[in-house]
Amino acid sequence: MAEEEANQLKSKGNKFLQEGDFGKAIECYSEAIELCPKNHVLFSNRSAAFAKQEKYSEALVDAKRTVELNPQWGKGYSRLGAALTYLGRYAEAKQAYEDGLKYDADNEQLKSGLEDVKSRITTSSSNRQKRASPFDSADVQAKLLADPSTKEFMKDPEFLEILNNIKSNPDMLGMYINDPRVMQALGVILGINIQTAGGQGASQSQDDLPNPKPKEEKAESKTKTEEATEVDTRTESQKEAENEKESGNAAYKKKDFDTALKHYGKAIELDPENIAYYTNRAAVYFEQKKYEDCIKQCEEAVEVGRKNKAEYKAIAKALSRIGNAYAKMEVFDKAMRYYDLSLAEFRSPDVIKRADELKKLMKDKERLEYIDKDKAEEERVKGNELFSQGKYPEAIKHYTEALRRNPDDARVYSNRAACYTKLAEFRLAIKDCDDCLKINPDFVKGHLRKAGALLAVKENRKAQDAYKKALELDPNCQEAKEGLNKSMYARYSADPEQRKREAMQDPEVQSIMMDPAMRMILEQMQEDPRAATEHLRNPEIAMKIKKLMDAGILSMK
Prior knowledge:
Layout: H1 2-19, H2 22-35, H3 40-52, H4 56-69, H5 74-86, H6 90-103, H7 108-130, H8 140-146, H9 157-168, H10 180-190, H11 224-228, H12 236-253, H13 257-270, H14 275-287, H15 291-307, H16 312-328, H17 332-345, H18 349-370, H19 373-388, H20 392-405, H21 410-422, H22 426-439, H23 444-456, H24 460-473, H25 478-492, H26 496-503, H27 507-514, H28 516-527, H29 530-535, H30 539-550
Helix pairs in contact: 1-2, 2-3, 3-4, 3-5, 4-5, 4-17, 5-6, 5-7, 6-7, 12-13, 13-14, 14-15, 14-16, 15-16, 16-17, 17-18, 19-20, 20-21, 21-22, 21-23, 22-23, 23-24, 23-25, 24-25
């Protein structure tokens, strides 16, 4: 039912997209995604609609989700490449197109997109060579470190990354033009005093940057008062708004949230173009657990920020706070989407960490919701039937599904290991046996199958140990007895060098060889064979020497 309704919404969205009504198309696709959040086509279509609206960060997030949901679908990589190209991230776009062509070599969109982005890379590189950038100067860092107004910036990894971005691509200067640090740095490099706007640029978040100190004027005609004074270009209304914000911050720290809301609200009335006041008020709603109000306030903050060209970091903060609110409401898909949107604006380490934690939580939740022991048993029985018919690849599919439904069934790991052994995939068989024995260390068949696979890859000592373990659990097991004899014969009849290599994989042998005291004893025995008699009187040393002799590492005449 949900899928049918989602398809109807998709059709409506497609129609709106064709008619150029991109907003309504996005609404339709979003409603459809609510119903079918795993449908990659819906994310692909919404990515296209966002791109038409020139909302390229949103287009990128949906394109990434498309590829995650269906990594082998060429069109997803086409969407990803297009979004990255629009954002000027040409190297990443080129990689996206190339990745897509690995799965869909004849896709014309991917081919043309790749050619286009290659051309852009060439042109961009040529333009950079022709165009001198103030940030290309060899003494840029020295200038910025020497100037008191930019010295502290050079300790910030984020600022250093911005500098590198602008240096590698001068076109990116426009992306950071609203960052007062970048403008201050540009002024220092060029040797001029660049004033930033007092309103939007002066207060972007609760963690406002201090106003940079004015450079010392060398002109003798200026008075001392003029040299010490920096012109404040803010309006009286903006100054009052800043005072209200400070009062709101003080109330917030005291957890007097109602008072904080009043001050932030007043700040917005006085200066409605400053994104910081909206995000601060949203922070209060978050603390009050009014998550829907928090989301609504942050959405308004993003709208105001984009309209007034706020810093990317400020917009990213509002988007991540929406993600936090959705996470608290346990609407994880939406939380993840807003974290991705935030990271498309600014790569905050805290948001990256929260996004990674949420991804893990979502995977664990999805895995737990999928568990169904009755269905797991049905799949196991189907696997057994196919195994008995010699249809091992088909049996593996059912055993794998059984493990997804019930990952704690040791028998299924053992059964799948038997399939892998039949297909000569011995390493996979060993891994499944290890997983089987983690769940049930006393499962005899698991040890036997592991031993057989180890024997096949000529790890004879380990095979011997596995057969011994099976015999400890079942002293009358004929298969274990025969296997032990076979592994011992294979071990001692093996090429001496191979035997030594295998022995050196034994942790006990490694420990003996790394023991300084034992190494000294072995050196003494080599120099003076009579010393062996003395050392062999010590039972502990005698046992270690016997271990090395059994391994073929040491021989005595």
